[in-house]
Amino acid sequence: MAATAQAQVPDLVSETAFRVCSDPAAYPASVEDGTGYENRIAELLAEALGRPVEYTWYPMSTGFIRNTLAAAECDVVIGYAQGDELVLNTNHWMTSTHVLVTRRDGPLAEVDTLADPKLQEARIGVIAGSPPASHLAREGLLDDIRSYELFADRRHNSPPDEMLADLEAGEIDLAVMWGPIAGPMVKQRHPDLVATPLLREELPPRLSYRITMGVRQGEDAWKRELNSLIRRNQDRIDAILREAGVPILNDMGTELKAEG
């Protein structure tokens, strides 16, 4: 009986549409109007499959997978960190890292490591509970930080926007953010700021991550099909990311990825 149920799992994947589980307000990655870079990647893969894109929208917070992918309302999450047990991960389609965001003409614009002595007197913004917070603690930089929410329904409250607004207003001197969020926001909306990838941090926790697509556990055939699509379209995916302003790294996360 269990074997029969497992065999039926792949049948949940639609053969008539590329059904994507997505956050409607996760700019710059996923946006309900279709302008996010994950939306463009979804369109690319759907075109390769010869199917239209159909979205199931749900905020990326508690219950996201349960109410979308696990409920068979959709078949793939475009952006999902490698190694999460809630989903079956495809091969990664992006490696990226956290960045420092500063004012382009400010005294911290050239800083590229959290160990820089210039940060000892800086007012730093960081997402609460994110990996960079552990590095800030080790460097003794927690005395003057401002924390922003890790999980939020960005239709109503957007911590990344709040952080960059505070930086531009002079309420903080530096923001430590996830590059695939900060890079495009700086490029597209904040030309007076600069985002510098953190590539020199050698101690844990790591600040670079591989991003995969997530499918339901047991859907190995669907995973293999997506892996093939990612492999054949990697150059086009990279082009979408670069155009958006995402800092993409080599597979080891040690340096910026060379343009192929």
What does this structure look like?
With 260 residues, the chain is α/β, with parallel strands linked by helices. The chain has two domains: 2-94 and 208-244, Periplasmic binding protein-like II (D-Maltodextrin-Binding Protein, domain 2, 3-Layer(aba) Sandwich); 97-197, Periplasmic binding protein-like II (D-Maltodextrin-Binding Protein, domain 2), CATH 3.40.190.10. The protein contains seven helices and twelve strands. It has helices at residues 2-8, 37-49, 64-67, 131-138, 159-168, 179-189, 220-244, and strands at 18-22, 25-26, 30-31, 53-57, 76-81, 88-89, 94-103, 124-127, 145-148, 174-178, 193-197, 208-215. 38% of the residues are buried. Residues 1-10 have low confidence and may be disordered. This is Quinoprotein dehydrogenase-associated putative ABC transporter substrate-binding protein. Residues 17-247 form the Solute-binding protein family 3/N-terminal domain. Keywords: Signal.
Concise account of the structure shown:
This is Quinoprotein dehydrogenase-associated putative ABC transporter substrate-binding protein. With 260 residues, this protein is of the alpha/beta class.
| Parts with pLDDT < 50 across at least 5 consecutive residues | 1-10
CATH class of the largest domain: Alpha Beta
The Rg value, from CA coordinates, equals: 19 Å
Q: Under the CATH scheme, which architecture of the largest domain would be assigned? A: 3-Layer(aba) Sandwich
What is the number of beta strands? 12
- How much helicity do the residues have? 25-40%
**What is the CATH homology-level superfamily of the largest domain?**
Periplasmic binding protein-like II
Shape: elongated
Mean pLDDT: 94
Q: Would you list the SSEs in sequence order as H and E?
A: HEEEHEHEEEEHEHEHEEH
Q: How many domains make up the 3D coordinates? A: 2
How much strand?
15-25%
Number of helices: 7
What gap, in angstroms, lies between the N and C termini? 49 Å
* CATH topology name of the largest domain: D-Maltodextrin-Binding Protein, domain 2
Largest sheet data: 10 strands, mixed
Keywords: Signal
Protein name: Quinoprotein dehydrogenase-associated putative ABC transporter substrate-binding protein
Domain Solute-binding protein family 3/N-terminal: 17-247
